[in-house]
Amino acid sequence: MTTLRLVPGTPDGVLAALAGLLDGSGTPFAPVPEDAVGAARVRQAAAPDEPIEDAAGVVLTTSGSSGEPKGVLLSREALIASAEATHDRLGGPGQWLLPMKPYFVGGLQILTRSLVAGTTPVVVADSFTAAARKLTGVRRYTAMVPTQLARYLDTDLDGLRLFDAIIIGGASTPEPLKARAAAAGVTAIPAYGMTETGSGCVYAGVPLDGTSIELDAGRILIKGSTLFSGYRLRPELTADVLRNGWFRTQDRGELVDGRLRVVGRVDDVVISGGVNVTLTTVQARLLEHPQVKDAAVLGVPDADWGTRVVAFVVGEPSRDELRDWISELLPRTWAPQDVVALDALPMLASGKVDRQRLLEGVR
């Protein structure tokens, strides 16, 4: 009987386990974060004492930004297919910089790409620019979440300019941030994907080779060689989202000039006072305000409204000013009933906004 092996979620620990898995000498594993909460979530979602499912290579725990974490089964073949498709899209293998945790799919796939390319990854310890200058490969790559890109544009612009390509994933990249990176001469490529797709599988709206997308009443469906095998010990949930080889995501999208545009999650449309409100559209409008540095918009259960629209904003504008700003382009009924000012949005280790912590503060 083969069971799941737990390994330290450090760059060295994950790299060693991953190297064994890819060359066939290792066994299925799950990276365990250093913090107690993260370790408990891995044990909850991965169940290491139970026999491992067929074709499993690595089990990654989803961030649980919107609810219960799940153990995602990724095969050796899916990991390699994702790495090779990424290199093909970028113009060839290169050397990678790791600025994120490797126990989430974005960080783990940086290490996979390095092993597939036969190059040595460089880990960001303190200074991003100092780490970037250690890269010696002909092609230099990295990947990060939008929050990191925004921060490094302020503090490490010289380092960002050293890269041939920077993959931006883990969350939607705001249009103002894309424009800012382009104006600074930084080659930032927005990617769409998730743990279940082996990291980003659509770059700048175009699927990687081996990946197909379809829309079913606006819901994004994905098929291809990078897809996960299922959820750890959750056959009913797996059957619900994997149908005839297609993964039914929780995201809505549209095709614009043949490119995929992600417009939000299926549950991002709420009914507030009898009106359908698209939360991601409200959030995007808030981020266009010159004094708003960051924002998140959530629906909160409310006895009077059904769902109350609440905006969490990093910036100086008042509630009335932001409601007027929203109403200039969107229906007045979409303007948030409440605006919560924060010094910074709470973030998960994966780089996503911690929606649960935000909701706990307003319920």
Automatic annotation (TrEMBL):
<dbReference type="InterPro" id="IPR042099">
    <property type="entry name" value="ANL_N_sf"/>
</dbReference>
<dbReference type="InterPro" id="IPR050237">
    <property type="entry name" value="ATP-dep_AMP-bd_enzyme"/>
</dbReference>
<dbReference type="InterPro" id="IPR045851">
    <property type="entry name" value="AMP-bd_C_sf"/>
</dbReference>
<dbReference type="GO" id="GO:0008756">
    <property type="term" value="F:o-succinylbenzoate-CoA ligase activity"/>
</dbReference>
<keyword id="KW-0436">Ligase</keyword>
<dbReference type="Pfam" id="PF13193">
    <property type="entry name" value="AMP-binding_C"/>
</dbReference>
<feature type="domain" description="AMP-dependent synthetase/ligase">
    <location>
        <begin position="45"/>
        <end position="208"/>
    </location>
</feature>
<dbReference type="InterPro" id="IPR000873">
    <property type="entry name" value="AMP-dep_synth/lig_dom"/>
</dbReference>
<feature type="domain" description="AMP-binding enzyme C-terminal">
    <location>
        <begin position="283"/>
        <end position="352"/>
    </location>
</feature>
<dbReference type="Pfam" id="PF00501">
    <property type="entry name" value="AMP-binding"/>
</dbReference>
<protein>
    <submittedName>
        <fullName>O-succinylbenzoic acid--CoA ligase</fullName>
        <ecNumber>6.2.1.26</ecNumber>
    </submittedName>
</protein>
<dbReference type="InterPro" id="IPR025110">
    <property type="entry name" value="AMP-bd_C"/>
</dbReference>
<dbReference type="InterPro" id="IPR020845">
    <property type="entry name" value="AMP-binding_CS"/>
</dbReference>
